[in-house]
Amino acid sequence: MKKWAQDHSDAKISAGQAGTGAGFQKFIAGDIDFADASRPIKDEEKQKLQDKNIKYKEFKIAQDGVTVAVNKENDFVDELDKQQLKAIYSGKAKTWKDVNSKWPDKKINAVSPKLKSWYL
Questions:
Q1: Closest CA to 5 of 14, 119, 36
Q2: CA 69, CA 110: separation in Å to the nearest integer?
Q3: Are residues 119 and 82 in the same domain?
Q4: What is the per-residue pLDDT across 1-57, written as a single tens digit (0 to 9) for each?
């Protein structure tokens, strides 16, 4: 990044904590020269870029990893697959029994930051 900044001294670089959507808004507004993101550019964002005649190049350089931890008091969950996680975080599964019929009928207390930013 330092080398790129030296070669492009007119570029605007910000290392803020705005989030993907806010970062794309700043990019579309012309406030920043590039934005990193945890997801691909949405169709409506692409349309706004096109409307403003902003040329861009989108490329994937990495993929987020997500860690899910289960309370140590929970002695019945050994693993959760993608579908089970979707059921839990979408609110479809309210109890552990909703996730797996062999598990107890105990309420699930799932905590995570900004569920809307997850792509399960």
A1: 14
A2: 10
A3: yes
A4: 567 677 877 776 666 667 888 889 999 998 888 888 888 999 999 999 999 999 999
Residues 104 and 96: beta-carbon distance below 8 Å:
yes
**Distant-in-sequence, close-in-space partners of 94: CB < 8 Å, separation ≥ 6:** 107, 108
Residue 31: other Cβ atoms inside 10 A:
12
Contact status, residue 23 vs residue 36, Cβ threshold 8 Å: yes
Range of the domain at 90: 65-120
Domain check: are 47 and 86 in the same one? no
Structure tokens at 92: 């479809």
Q: What is the rounded distance in angstroms from the CA atom of residue 64 to the CA atom of residue 66?
A: 7
